[in-house]
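Run log // design_07
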């Protein structure tokens, strides 16, 4: 069974929009977006990178036959290859360096959002109640991660989601039977103020080896292109083999 089919089945089971949590939730645009993309070669890729954005800006996509979510994969595919803004442009460059071309990278990565509905068409103004409902009550992103089993998860969420991200690891520990969640030693410089952050965590098994790594960093917008791309490429490559275990705080 393909992972994208399993994700869709999970959406149906959650009954987006009609379950109790969704009914009580009040985002401006109550139109849950599906996972953006899962490459055809993602499952066998050595990096298995899942990129996670904040929220899809504005109402877009059409509801699938189930009526629970809006399918966005065709639109996202077009945006990835054609949009010139930092979000898509920097990501294309990262994948070009890691995989040789954007096309090769797109076939091997997955993309989603941490929030499925949205309050905005431009700047992210997601209310705390919406964040808590989607991330901590419905646990949608955790369930997507459980199905996809990525090795490296990159959150383009900045600091506004730190409270929810810190708490989502409790569910992931159960899903992956992890022994604990640890903070990785700094291998990337942190920025000043709200402009840039690089927080790194990992799920460890009973032997102390990492199951999955996480990088919580800033939205690419307004970041210095060369530095941002260089640091993310370095982080991804530092996870090759088991070298990352040497940087785990015991």
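design_07 sequence
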């Amino acid at each position: 069974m393909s992972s994208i089919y399993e994700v869709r089945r999970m959406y149906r089971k959650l009954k987006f929009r009609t379950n109790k949590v969704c009914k009580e939730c009040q985002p401006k645009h109550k139109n849950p977006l599906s996972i953006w993309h899962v490459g055809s070669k993602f499952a066998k890729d050595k990096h298995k990178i899942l990129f996670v954005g904040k929220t899809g800006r504005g109402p877009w996509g059409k509801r699938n036959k189930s009526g629970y979510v809006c399918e966005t994969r065709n639109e996202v595919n077009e945006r990835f290859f054609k949009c010139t803004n930092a979000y898509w442009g920097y990501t294309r460059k990262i994948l070009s360096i890691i995989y040789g071309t954007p096309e090769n990278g797109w076939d091997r990565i997955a993309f989603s959002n941490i929030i499925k509905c949205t309050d905005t068409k431009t700047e992210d103004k997601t209310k705390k109640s919406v964040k808590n409902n989607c991330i901590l009550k419905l646990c949608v992103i955790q369930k997507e991660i459980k199905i996809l089993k990525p090795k490296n998860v990159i959150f383009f969420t900045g600091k506004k989601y730190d409270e929810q991200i810190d708490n989502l690891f409790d569910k992931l520990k159960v899903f992956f039977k992890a022994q604990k969640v640890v903070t990785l030693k700094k291998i990337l410089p942190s920025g000043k103020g709200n402009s840039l952050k690089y927080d790194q965590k990992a799920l460890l098994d009973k032997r102390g080896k990492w199951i999955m790594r996480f990088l919580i960093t800033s939205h690419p917008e307004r970041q210095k292109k060369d530095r941002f791309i260089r640091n993310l490429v370095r982080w991804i490559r530092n996870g090759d083999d088991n070298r990352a275990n040497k940087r785990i705080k015991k």
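The chain has nine helices and nine strands.
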